[in-house]
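Appendix B. Raw example, untouched.
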Amino acid sequence: MFLSPVAHVWHYKPWQRNAAGFLRMFAKNRLPNNEMIGYVINDKHPKSIKVACDRYVYVVRYKKTFRLTKKVWVHDEDSVARMGDVVRVQPLGYRIGPWKNYVLVRLLHREPREADMLEAADRADLGRSVQQAAADAESRGEGLL
């Protein structure tokens, strides 16, 4: 059976195309150079991080928006990104090692750490509270340790 070029490409019937009888997904990455934004889920390896990049896709058939997560290994030359940070990554076009295809472009948001949250005033209060606990323990006749 010979099909015209148009009919060969579109082998669905017109009512199937219009009714979205198959999954039609509409999503466009608007960042340049196929860059993606994601969050770091693994930073245990030297110069490497694992980033989960989410994209939201609306499926016409189900009238729902689904979250698709792509997890990629990223080369982080200076090891600046930590767990939970929001980063921007770009594909290299070639591979570094057996898994890494992406390189870190920018660190967009740094997740607050325990050490960052404890400032000088907080540390002083913490020191004072430890001293008060030690004084209370001595007054009761108990040792702190």
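End of appendix B.
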